[in-house]
């Protein structure tokens, strides 16, 4: 049966992470860039911002325009037709972030300022 | 007070190297035991650990460090691939921080869960002379252990690893495994107390909660073998890579055998360096301390302001 198996054997799940109500800021340049990227698909697609383990600071951001996910665990924030989804499990890490867009050939693109991050990687994708 | 050298009145209590050559003993180790379930658990752990565990497969054990973004060690973990899950054994005092890191960073679309094995599973460690012989006498049916693989027999997980040239055998056992504890009794083996484990781990230079606590780099505590500079990003990787390419480690671990107990904290050495004592233990009248000091420390250095003898061993 193995050390982790056997009838009636189970281990308790480590408690889930805390959930808070998320508020975020989206700059005008970020709104414009997102609208351009979504190109009229705002009704079916959303901007999904998430965090996961990785990078040299511990956690990495991920931003993707995806079809509206069929998952009840998301908090939904609306900005003039643009819908942003953040999962409950990421809420403590992403609450209060400011999403900006810099139109630059060097180091341009979407950038996230995170008041919860004590440290960020030079590339801006990883934080702790 | 003049610095004093070790006086070897009784060779059996000379130094930590002698202590480690005592008969193998079974120690209860207060560890954090967690189980991660889910298809992507190897990749998830690989994003966190300092070693590349992408090749971790069923029946294998791999170890790694968890470090903060400043490169300091926050936990030392042993990972056992159990087929459907990974058994993760870390340092007890770091349970909360490690579990928070493991759970917070789970991607929203991955079905990973972390289970609490504390209290249900126990971590035992065999250290001393010929630990394999002890296992053989206890379980003659068990085939020979090899590094990076574990054997599971009668609901006991056996694995072997080397640390500072000492062979160490880890056992993970369910606390309700009456057969295992019955075997120990029949062979007249006793499980040493937690205080004795503290002495044993200092003997072989294995870091504990006072060393893996966000204050020290892997280089400082003799765990450089658990960082992989080729795997790419992991927390602390930038610092470790910079140390490797641009500078030299500044600190190293030492073990001090002394006649009197040392206070935790800074102590002066006869060669002008100082040692930061982080852990101490007493057994059979021998005081052992673990400390961190400059890499330049002399092998002959002794403690200044020490009433009894002192003997420093570089780890």
Question: Can you walk through the features of this model?
Answer:
The complex is a heterodimer of chains A (128) and B (315). With 128 residues, chain A is mainly β. Helix content of chain A is 12%, strand content 36%. Chain A is built from 2 helices and 8 strands. Chain A has a 5-stranded mixed beta sheet. In chain A, a hairpin with a 2-residue loop joins strand 4 and strand 5. Chain A is globular. The model of chain A has no long low-confidence stretch (mean pLDDT 88). Chain B is globular. The longest helix of chain B is centred in the N-terminal third of the chain and has 10 residues. Chain B folds into 2 domains: 201 residues, Gyrase A, domain 2 (2-Layer Sandwich); 65 residues, Beta Barrel (Elongation Factor Tu (Ef-tu), domain 3). By secondary structure, chain B is of the alpha+beta class. In chain B, strand 14 and strand 15 form a beta hairpin. In chain B, strands 8-9-10-7-1-11 form a 6-stranded mixed beta sheet, with helices on both faces. Chain B has a 5-stranded antiparallel beta sheet with strand order 3-4-5-2-6, with helices on one face. The chains are: A mainly beta (128), B alpha+beta (315). Chains A and B meet through strand 2 and strand 3 of A and helix 3, strand 6 and strand 10 of B.
